[in-house]
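Internal ticket - ligand job 278, NDP:
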Amino acid sequence: MGIPTYTLNDGTSLPAIGFGTYPLTGDDGVAAIRSAIENGYRLIDTAVNYRNESEVGRAIRQSGVAREDLLVASKIPGRDHGYDDATRSVHESLERLGLDHLDLSLIHWPNPSQDRYAEAWRALVDLREQGLVRSIGVSNFTEAHLQRIIDESGVTPVVNQIELHPYFPQVQMRAVNERLGIRTESWSPLGKRQAPFSEPPVAAAAEAYGVTPGQVILRWQVQLGAVPIPKSATPERQRQNLDVFGFELTDDEVAAITALGRPDGRLFDGDPDTHEEM
Ligand SMILES: NC(=O)C1=CN([C@@H]2O[C@H](COP(=O)(O)OP(=O)(O)OC[C@H]3O[C@@H](n4cnc5c(N)ncnc54)[C@H](OP(=O)(O)O)[C@@H]3O)[C@@H](O)[C@H]2O)C=CC1
Ligand SMILES: O=C(O)C(=O)[C@@H](O)[C@H](O)C(=O)CO
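stdout (structure tokens):
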């Protein structure tokens, strides 16, 4: 069964699930990313700050899958938010990846104290016009950050990649993204080391559908309309994480997993109004 796709607000297509590559580096990283591509992932998520763009490029070339069948997303770090810096950053990413364009480029964190994310956005708008980037988006943006770049540029991001897992279901932020016509992407979609695999709603659904708790959580993501980008260096888990389109949770099951949300559900201090990454 192929991976379903969404049509984004710029008319391009995005697979309903992607592969996260942090912190896969070195030859082992290449092997894991190549395995993910060979297992069927067609959206590969990297970033300048993952220091693995060259590994992603090597894995693509070794996989034997045609470049045009893959979507490669990378992210601009906080230190490169100036217009010229952001432009240079994307060029350098392409060099490390060995590609002539990115399918998706995101601003990694808004870094509001620097207050230059709107400049980085203007650079991405121009890079898209120049054909170096097919689609442009953001990550860890709040409603205020989104509204500012939309008001100043007239261009709406295609995605907002945010922390999203059962302990942190981001009900409000998902509603903001939807209202603005922005597709939500979920980072740490399983909840990383705090994955709620044994929580009753997750365990019960796994039992009911004969799937793993990880598959229940990723199916929950899909039914929220979010695009999860789970990372796994384990081929069997890579396959499992992609195999979430053969069953459907009831509305009550979705609601019960969303109800696992906690006020302190963030995995670390990743509040976009205060957490900054250069
Ligand atoms: N934009 C941003 O600011 C951020 C973006 N990200 C992106 O999101 C991606 C995914 O997030 P990440 O933080 O890795 O967390 P995930 O929620 O994807 O969890 C990854 C961890 O879960 C394990 N795992 C994967 N699949 C399963 C499974 N089916 N059952 C049990 N354990 C499993 C993996 O172990 P193993 O590898 O051994 O299988 C790994 O340790 C990152 O790789 C990155 O691309 C992440 C953080 C911030
Ligand atoms: O993985 C990412 O994209 C990040 O932004 C990471 O640096 C994230 O902040 C993290 O993993 C911190 O533990």
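Auto-summary: The chain has a mean pLDDT of 97. Residues 22, 47, 268, 277 surround LYEC3VGP (ligand 2) (CB under 6 Å).
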